[in-house]
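Comment on the following before class.
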Amino acid sequence: MTEVIVAGAGPTGLALACELALAGVDVLVVERLPYRIEQTKGGAIQPRTQELLELRGLLEPMQARALSREPAGGHFAMLPVPLDCTALDTAHPYPLSIPQGEIEAVLEERATALGVKVLRESAVTAVEQSDDGVVVTAGDRRIEARYLVACDGGHSTVRKLLGVPFPGRPGTYTAVLADVRLSSVSDLVPKTIGHISTLTREVDDHWVMLVPLGGGRYRFTGGAAGEEEPAKDKPVTFEEIAELLRVVYGEQTVLAAVDNASRFSDATRQIDSYRVGNVFFAGDAAHIHPPFGGQGLNLGVQDAFNLGWKLAAVLRGQASTDLLDSYHAERHPAGAWVLHITQAQRVFATPRPDADAVELRKVFTDLMRLPEANRHLAGLMSGLSHSYDLPGDHPLVGHRVAGLDPSLFLAGRPVLLDLAGILPPDLAATRGRPVDGLPGAILVRPDGYAAWAADAVPDLDALVGNPCWSLLT
């Protein structure tokens, strides 16, 4: 019997496995595919996700595998105004461009080093629940565990086996995502990775975004507006991609090979509850949305960082099972907000804009050039302005804590900081010097959010009563 089974070896599942194993939890990852798909896919790590990865020493190895890109900000609906995160108190104001396969490679390497076993070619075919746990049939094994976390994507098998509804709206169009190689290119093809508005080109009803990966390789995203959209499961053909490239970039742009290809849609869905008994849902298994602003992978990894320490605390007897309810309470609103802002972008980024939408684009582009408007959108799209509704009177509680040494969080535990000498000396606090913008004492959760804070005379009853307090001892 294992303690936690994670279904799915994508970024969300592997990040969760790392968090659990770091806390000493016995965790097993089951994956239906026989090997990792080396596809670029979701290739942007947003500033807030970079901060979380840095807390565990995972950012540096990802930076070493990242693609070279210009220091350009993120985007809203692909409009031609970069989002400026430099004023949001972060060491990582720009998205990191890295193929999803490389993200998974770093996470799997860390997970296996921590003792996690990844069972590939082990599709989940049955899930049985009881008061004491779950029994999962994966491949030819029946595995008992205390908890199961479904990180198995937008078509989640676990979700379907449990009959969990996935309400929302279907897609209005489909598009192609592929890794391609070009034998020749026209002058219209981008040579470096810059702001997304410099990578996307439209001609009549055809649109393509090309991201140069080096060595004649590109990440291709594109489609053609027509009366009949191809079905999402219809195979992508070489000729289809070649024709889109020819129309958008000219006859000189010649497709040499398609390394992998798939279709996606702009469907928007979210499950009503992230917990069903002893089963939790994270990543695309819990929410899907239009692919605007590089949100999907980041939202899933942030789900994992929220759930991991909570599951570990309960399994180690350091917190009551009530703590697990806070996963849904905190992450469902976060997912709903991402669905909200990605649906809003659909109006601007639709491949078939009417005349009114074209004019609205112009107005909103001008608004984005206003510093306050830009900063607001930058905070939303980067994740840096996200906060949780946590109990406590101090204004920092529930917000990310910036300006601390990331190495304090390498062990994946909460950190109690005394920056002004206001805590009793017998408390297990890390003493330090005052930091501009931070209160005198802070209890920071393993995921980098303030759980408790005090400027001067501390309320020790509130500190000791905080769920994170028991994780310190």
